[in-house]
Amino acid sequence: MSGIIVVGVDGSDTARKAAESARDLAAALGATLHVVSAFDADRSDKFGSGSNKWLVSDADKAEHVARSVADTLGSDIKITYAAASGRPADALIREAISKEARAIVVGNRRMRGIGRVLGSVANSVAHNAPCDVYIANTYDVD
Fold this sequence. Notes:
Helix 3 (88-99) packs parallel to helix 5 (121-128). The chain is globular and about 50 Å long. The protein is α/β, with parallel strands linked by helices. It contains five helices and seven strands, in the order E-H-E-E-E-H-E-H-E-H-H-E. The chain is 41% helix and 30% strand. It has a single domain (4-141), classed as 3-Layer(aba) Sandwich (Rossmann fold), CATH 3.40.50.620. The strands form two sheets. Strands 5-2-1-6-7 form a five-stranded parallel β-sheet, sandwiched between helices. Strands 3-4 form a two-stranded antiparallel ribbon.
């Protein structure tokens, strides 16, 4: 078996736990893990003063989050990462389509209470994904 497993991360502990579950699933399937962090808009912030100024965009921040998670998962499998524009569920679905992923892994954060009624990333992905969806239990992280 092989293929690509896509996982969404946002820097939170719950997303980290979902990424660890995705890593384990990818290892069991002999698949590549693709870590994705979404960003809504490509805004930029300037930091520094005088001639020492840096421009940091939302895309840069999202890529940093994805790379940081990918770098710390420590596994014998191939792990790639990317930043993807759009709302998290939409970005994950587009990445899964473009990579012809066999599964998307998301955490179950906000799938209880009012979040369940209003929707969540996991709910949106589960209803619109072009592939299998694995919802990792991340309730004990909060």
